[in-house]
Design brief:
There is one protein chain. This protein is mainly β. It has a single domain, classed as Maltoporin, Chain A (Beta Barrel), CATH 2.40.170.20. It contains eight helices and 43 strands. The strands form ten sheets. The chain has a 22-stranded antiparallel beta barrel. The longest helix is centred in the first third of the chain and has 17 residues, at 7-23. It is globular. The two termini are 36 Å apart.
């Protein structure tokens, strides 16, 4: 276990660690990072990589000591990627898929699960949640600083609720931004590409005095998209300040703000997908209103750390967060407009006590108060003709929703790492979550508003959960270790799940969706040598009372609890240095996602596989860093996404795909670097997602061959 240290010492340690990482493997747990130049290493000495990770235990720990599968994309790989969307740096992780949706800033996620839009993932920025579990948005990572100043990405796979609470079911994704430095450093990157892609990134860090340092960063991105009526604009600023008050106290303050605009496109029919994949999928009437998704985000936080003694460290992070989300729902034929905002005040309190025998106790308390205002209304007159006959007239100005939801959370937790022997660490943890909702509905109560929507009376709902975990790490020798864990997680029904109901929902369902619980069992093995890293993980995740979408007799979708769902699989991550010039990584996963007990609208789906879950996923990279061409690094990446069911009835398979990408960098001068990337190198036609709904197939086409290049100046 890695004990934290004051800021000055930590900065010195970070500099030393960077030198070590240059001569050894660099965070290769994820199979998605570039390997450094091995010629700079002492090849006669045996070195073992110990990558520091934060997400596994809410503090710095070496990856070999945590009983959990955690993937890391390190700074070296992020610099090589120079990605315009977070998918560019994560799709090569075993069992991880984060898809960019139709050229926008939006995304959906599939980590140890099928691709989905549900709250099975917790998204963090510098270990602080980017959004509330009560108001989960599958696009949460668009609010991270990935496009501005990402230094490391960590993906904790599997249950994480014992430390992080609701939503940390399948994975916890933590985007870590760059830290201020004590020496001046400036960066300016200009990137251009096809479809009028333009990205500008700039940052500057320096010391104010011997006790204080700061970092200021900003980015602006514009992309017209490769499909009709797609594209995006994004701007962000980030400010960080570190202050060593004295030997025992330090402050870290952060401010982040961004604004995003995404043009909207939608799925295509099979005919359009085959013959006209660049079309928007929207009717002329919808295009006439120019549907867009607009979002603003701001967050401020201060972390106070007090080193009470050599054994006890205390920290407190108060934070405030504000986000808006305004959009035209183009996935509905009548295109309603939704407007919402969420304001949050929260506190993350934590203590770490280091025992004399090398054991460690982590304890803390998380608190959150969030309030959301949400309206949904009809922006224009629309007549929709049903494929079953008949038509519905939607009148401009009609309100479907107008409500305020208040959410409060109180969550104490504790985790103890017991060093039983020099080689064996045992871990036990427990977290209690109290979650309370309060609905203020400004519309009249009704079972049907005339358009199939149910309006509830004002109400309050509470949820209580207890999430334990047990784990172990056995260090077989200096190079290899085994780990195992058994952990429980929970997923709250969101405010929209609880209160945005259809008239087809029965009285028992109205506002009565229960939280779901999951149990993750996992065994793993790690091997790390001078030029080799291997990670193997086998897992099973059983979900009880899974919150799923169902359809009533009228075809309206509503949310309900299924009986049981199982996700299980195996993951292999391998990195190897072939020579001073060549290295490579391999990431493979095989999984199955199955309804164990589920009846939907009278149809027994037990034994069926969930839709959008690939039977396999893989990625391989080949890195060339020639010793005789200083400053050159090229990487060839091949990604495989297996076929999958397009519906829960398992009537049709969606085609998988294999894509190749090429990226590189070349140092023109010590302070000037040229970057380039080619996506979908062989211009493959593919759909990153397809599904069948009411007998109709829908396809989401993937981007064709795409070029981009950038130039970075450092001073």
């Amino acid at each position: 276990m890695q004990k934290r240290m004051p800021l000055k010492a930590a900065q010195n340690e970070a500099g030393f660690r960077k030198k070590i990482l240059v001569s050894t493997l660099s965070a290769i747990m994820a199979g998605g990072v570039s390997l450094p130049v091995f010629a700079e290493a002492d090849t006669n000495a045996e070195k073992v990589l110990q990558t520091l990770v934060v997400t596994a235990s809410r503090q710095d720990e070496v990856n070999t000591e945590v009983p959990v599968s955690i993937g890391v994309v390190a700074e070296q790989q992020l610099e090589l990627d120079q990605g315009a969307h977070i998918q560019d740096s994560t799709r090569h992780m075993a069992g991880v898929t984060i898809n960019q949706l139709s050229g926008s800033s939006s995304h959906n996620t599939g980590i140890r699960m099928p691709l989905n839009y549900d709250g099975y993932y917790l998204f963090l920025q510098d270990s602080v949640p980017l959004q509330s579990a009560a108001f989960f948005n599958h696009n949460g990572l668009r609010w991270s600083s990935y496009n501005t100043s990402a230094q490391q990405i960590e993906v904790l796979k599997g249950a994480g609720s014992t430390l992080y609470g609701s939503g940390a079911v399948a994975a916890t994704v933590n985007v870590l931004s760059a830290e201020p430095k004590s020496e001046p450093e400036g960066k300016l990157l200009v990137q251009v590409g096809e479809n009028d892609l333009t990205q500008l990134k700039a940052s500057y860090t320096n010391a104010i005095n011997e006790d204080q340092s700061f970092l200021v960063a900003g980015s602006a991105l514009k992309d017209n998209g490769w499909r009709d009526h797609s594209g995006r604009e994004r701007s962000e600023v980030l400010f960080k300040h570190q202050w060593q008050l004295d030997d025992n106290n330090e402050l870290k303050t952060q401010f982040q703000a961004s604004t995003l605009t995404d043009l909207s496109s939608t799925s295509l029919s099979e005919t359009d997908y085959r013959e006209n994949p660049t079309s928007s999928g929207l009717s002329d009437a919808v295009l006439a209103i120019d549907p867009q998704r607009e979002s603003d985000f701001a967050r401020v936080s201060t972390e106070w750390t007090h080193f009470y003694s050599d054994a006890l460290e205390l920290s407190l992070i108060p934070y405030a967060r504000y986000s808006t989300n305004d959009y035209i729902a183009t996935w509905r034929s009548y295109t309603p407009k939704g407007e919402s905002d969420v304001t949050t005040l929260g506190i993350l309190a934590k203590g770490v006590y280091s025992h004399d025998n090398g054991s460690e106790t982590l304890f803390g308390l998380d608190m959150e108060h969030s309030e959301s205002d949400m309206t949904s209304f009809q922006p224009l007159d629309v007549t929709v003709t049903s494929w079953r006959g008949g038509s519905t007239i939607y009148t401009q100005g009609f309100k479907y929703r107008d409500q305020t939801v208040t959410y409060n959370n109180l969550s104490p937790y504790i985790q103890h790492n017991y060093r039983a022997t020099d080689n064996l660490i045992l871990q036990a943890g427990l977290r209690y979550d109290y979650n309370a909702y309060e609905l203020d509905n400004k519309l009249a109560e009704t079972s049907n508003d005339g358009f199939g929507n149910r309006q509830l009376a004002d109400r309050e709902d509470t949820f209580n959960s207890l999430n334990p975990k047990l784990g172990f790490t056995y260090q077989y020798d200096v190079q290899s270790s085994f780990y195992g864990r058994l952990a429980q997680s929970n997923r709250l029904p969101t405010a929209s799940t609880l209160y945005n109901l259809k008239s087809g929902d029965s009285g028992s369902l109205a506002g009565g969706v229960e939280e779901e619980t999951s149990t993750t069992a996992e065994l793993g093995y790690r091997l790390q040598r001078q030029n080799l890293s291997l990670t193997l993980a086998v897992y099973r995740m059983d979900i009880d009372d899974a919150i799923v979408s169902a359809k009533d007799d009228n075809g309206d979708t509503y949310r309900t609890n299924a009986g049981e769902v199982r996700h299980e699989g195996i993951e292999l991550e391998l990195a190897y240095g072939f020579s001073d010039d060549w290295s490579g990584t391999l990431a493979l996963s095989r999984s199955r996602h199955e309804f164990i007990d589920y009846v939907n609208n009278g149809k027994d789906l037990s034994g069926n596989e969930l839709m959008r879950g690939p039977n396999g996923k893989g990625s391989a990279t080949l890195n060339w860093t020639p010793m005789d061409i200083a400053g050159l690094n090229l990487q060839l990446q091949v990604d495989y996404f297996g076929n999958y069911w397009m519906d829960d009835d398992n009537t049709r398979r969606g085609d998988g795909y294999t894509l190749a990408h090429l990226k590189g960098r070349y140092a023109l001068a010590p302070d000037l670097t040229l970057y380039g990337r080619v996506e979908n190198l062989f211009d493959r036609d593919y759909a990153y997602q397809s599904e069948v709904s009411w007998g109709r197939a829908k396809f989401y086409p993937g981007a064709p061959l795409t070029f981009s290049a950038g130039l970075e100046y450092r001073w």
